[in-house]
Write a structure and sequence with these properties.
This protein is mainly alpha-helical and about 800 residues long. It is built from 25 helices and seven strands. The chain is flat and about 155 Å long.
């Protein structure tokens, strides 16, 4: 079954590779980076490497730049360099420099680069800026700047992403057309790589392979090891999903051979893990073993949970594929027990469930295998992994067949057969799609050539049109000069007529002047009368003003006296209020002390009172037995007294420890639990695994939370050590979204949770959980270990104090 599906995928990907080869041969345009004497060119600056040496060259170019336009262009690449290194403040500073230099030179393309740099910085800050990219693209397109038009559309494509794959891919194709014309293989490689990743995320493997192989060829052309590592690594994953193991191994090896000292250790570990899995599926176990050792070395340096769980998974696959099913089951169970720690990695968790189910099937554990397969079906459906769905249905059918349930086995076999037929139909459709893709690719290349030819013709026609416009402007200038001469002659005639009219106007002005002098004399007389009236009015206003000032002064003095009286009254009220507050605080402290004494009294009564009563009763019985010379029976009751006395001492110690304010932090709780648990585990030969969030160390919970949490965990660990028969006990304490989550796991014999047991252990834990208002769960089954979890709300605000 898997062989048939693999053959179909291999045939599809071979067709895809052929299409990629054709596309790469047709796009052999290159960009050379050149440095002139003492001056860095635009081509050399377009190398967007974020190394310090490149940045130093850019600053040298700034010092040598002679125009504002040159400086604006160089400042763009400096801003881009800082942004690529996530130095956002520096990127924003030099982005403003682009705007300043562009404004001085009225350089609109520089303004487009300002918008482009700003949108890129916002993208890195997680704030999409679609409008910024669109403004930049419009300016670059209008000025026929193919390189920056391509960059703008490529980065605009990343604004859409998973939310709108269609718009993202349209913008990617527009950017690729511009970058192909601009002869910039570096930016073109980025565009093809991002487009290939887009199709890989939607499991459109043929299209993804087409663009990723193109990106790989361009990375090889510019000899960039980091880009070669990324492109070949994704191709390895693509062929691994498609079950084409030979091609997958080839690309994984190529990626790992291309890594450098600067390559991310996390990325290298992912590639090593997938390469090892690929080699295991191919049956090359010796080579897979050496890759696994290298994986372990990197994993030890990184030291995270995902790496350890994935290592268990890989070792489980190794043993399963090599036929060692008991070992495979052991490692897969180790991975399964901790799979809750990597819940966000659904594909990895799915693989753990799947291989665990397959190992259990091989070991005859059919019911357990069937319980895990629905989860594998769910995740495989979400991820469109049809080959896994095919194998899940076949494995489910085989499990039911082994259990003798023929109807269920037949149902899942029919589902498997239908899915297999569907996959065959899909592969046929993909073959037709590959031929269509090849035809469309060749057609698009011809259209690009036609556009280039028509562009040259358009440039020539534009030059002719410019010449005609210049000729027309010269003729217009000649006509305007003739019109100017005629207008000058007309102006001379008008000037003579104006001179005559000016003489007449002067005569009229003399007459008007005499009339105005007469009017002025009459106005002076009226003005003297007005001044006399105004002086009388000012005297009256002065008298009124003096009266108003005296009145306001009297009112002010009265108000001052009233305010002073009010101030004295207010001061007396404040004194009495403070005395009342002090009395209230004193009362609250006394009440709090009383409550504390009541809690301590209740704890001593609950925890110690019953034990003391038992000791007294056993003492009386032992005394009677000794008087009756029944020494053996008396010894039994003396042993009870000894045990209860030790328990009483321990409980009193716990109460004293709980009320001591020096023990109020989680750090002290955890330290006391460590001492308790490690001593008991050492005596039983049990290995204790402890994991506590560092963020909880300096939090100070209230006393009732501290006491109930400590006693709950102490009871759970004590029960696991006494009754589970486990070799390992896992204890974790985490703070997640204002919830404290405590978990105690063991790999012991477990118990039937539906059966009620005598004893106070579980009752005490349930009581502690109720006191904490917590969710309390026990997950156990015979032979499968026990998992106890406690979850309750805890808000850390106000609990953060100085380190103990």
């Amino acid at each position: 079954m898997l062989l048939v599906a693999a053959l179909f995928f291999k045939r599809t990907l071979l067709v895809t590779i052929a299409i990629c080869s054709c596309l790469i041969v047709s796009s052999q345009k290159t960009l050379t980076h050149s440095v002139h004497k003492g001056k860095t060119t635009k081509e050399s600056l377009s190398n967007t490497s974020s190394s310090p040496a490149v940045l130093a060259n850019m600053f040298t170019a700034i010092r040598n730049a002679s125009t504002n336009i040159e400086r604006a262009d160089i400042y763009y690449w400096i801003s881009r360099n800082y942004a690529d290194r996530l130095k956002i403040d520096s990127a924003l500073f030099y982005m403003e420099k682009i705007k300043e230099e562009s404004a001085k030179a009225n350089y609109e393309v520089g303004l487009g680069k300002y918008y482009l740099a700003g949108a890129y910085v916002n993208y890195l800050k997680g704030k999409p800026d679609t409008e910024g990219y669109k403004k930049a693209a419009e300016i670059f397109t209008r000025h026929r700047d193919d390189l920056f038009s391509g960059i703008a559309y490529r980065q605009l494509a990343r604004q859409h992403g998973p939310a709108d794959y269609r718009s993202s891919r349209i913008n990617s194709h527009i950017g690729i057309n511009f970058l192909s014309t601009a002869n910039n293989p570096g930016e073109l490689q980025r565009a093809y790589y991002e487009l290939g990743r887009s199709f890989f995320e939607t499991f459109e493997m043929d299209s993804s392979a087409l663009y990723l192989i193109t990106a790989l060829k361009l990375a090889e052309k510019i000899n960039d090891p980091g880009r070669i590592f990324n492109a070949s690594g994704i191709l390895g994953e693509l062929y691994l999903v498609a079950d084409n193991l030979d091609e997958s191994a080839k690309y994984f090896k190529y990626a790992l051979d291309s890594r450098t000292a600067k390559t991310s250790k996390v990325e290298v570990r992912v590639r090593l893990g997938n390469y090892a899995a690929c080699l295991m599926l191919k049956g090359e176990f010796e080579k897979a073993s050496s890759i696994l050792k290298e994986y372990e070395l990197i994993n030890e340096k990184l030291g995270d949970n995902w790496g350890l769980i994935n290592l268990y998974r890989l070792k489980g696959i190794y043993n399963y594929e090599s036929g060692n099913y008991p070992e495979a089951l052991k490692y897969m169970k180790l991975a399964y027990n901790r799979s809750g720690e990597i819940i966000n990695y659904s594909s990895d968790v799915k693989n753990i469930f799947f291989y665990l189910a397959k190992a259990e099937y091989k070991m005859g554990m059919y019911d357990s295998a069937l319980s895990r397969l629905p989860y594998v079906t769910k995740i495989s459906t979400q991820l469109h992994q049809n080959i896994d769905l095919l194998e899940v249905n076949l494995l489910t059918s085989q499990c039911y067949e082994k259990k003798g349930m023929a109807d269920s086995a037949y149902y899942y076999f029919v589902t498997y057969a239908h899915l297999k037929d569907s996959l065959l139909s899909i592969e046929k459709e993909k073959a037709v799609l590959d031929l269509t893709t090849r035809y469309e690719t060749e057609k698009k290349e011809q259209q690009i050539k036609i556009l280039e030819t028509s562009k040259e013709a358009g440039d020539y026609a534009l030059a002719l049109q410019n010449q005609q416009l210049e000729k027309q402007s010269l003729e217009n200038e000649k006509k305007s000069q003739q019109l100017l001469l005629l207008s000058q002659q007309s102006a001379i005639s008008k000037l003579e007529a104006y001179k005559q009219s000016l003489t007449l106007q002067n005569q009229q002005k003399d007459i008007l002047k005499k009339q105005q002098e007469l009017k002025l004399m009459s106005k002076e007389n009226r003005l003297r009368e007005t001044i006399a009236i105004k002086e009388n009015l000012q005297k009256r206003i002065a008298y009124i003003a003096v009266f108003a000032v005296l009145l306001l002064a009297g009112i002010s003095i009265y108000r001052y006296r009233q305010i002073r009286k009010l101030g004295k009254s207010l001061a007396a009220s404040l004194v009495s209020l403070k005395e009342a507050q002090d009395q209230l605080v004193k009362t609250e402290k006394e009440k709090e002390a009383e409550n504390l004494r009541l809690r301590i009294s209740r704890d001593i009564h609950d925890e110690v009172g019953a034990t003391l009563s038992g000791v007294a009763l056993f003492s009386e019985i032992a005394k009677q037995k000794m008087e009756q010379h029944q020494d053996e029976e008396a010894q039994v009751y003396l042993n009870h007294i000894s045990t209860n006395s030790k328990e009483m001492v321990e409980k009193i110690s716990d109460i004293v420890w709980a009320i001591n304010p020096e023990n109020d932090s989680f750090d002290r709780i955890i330290s006391k639990l460590k001492v308790f648990a490690f001593n008991l585990c050492a005596g039983k030969g049990i290995e204790l695994h402890l994991h506590v969030d560092d963020s909880m160390q300096n939090l100070y919970p209230p006393m009732h939370i501290k006491r109930n949490l400590y006693l709950f965990m102490k009871e759970a660990i004590n029960n696991a050590i006494k009754y589970s028969g486990a070799k390992n006990i896992y204890f974790s304490l985490r703070l997640m979204e204002e919830q404290i989550i405590a978990c105690i796991n063991d790999d012991g014999k477990g118990f039937n949770n539906s059966v009620s047991y005598q004893g106070n252990g579980l009752k005490n834990m349930k009581a502690r959980a109720m006191n904490l208002d917590a969710k309390f769960d026990i997950d156990s089954a015979s032979g499968e270990g026990t998992k106890i979890s406690l979850q309750f709300p805890f808000h850390p605000i106000g609990g953060q104090q100085r380190a103990v």
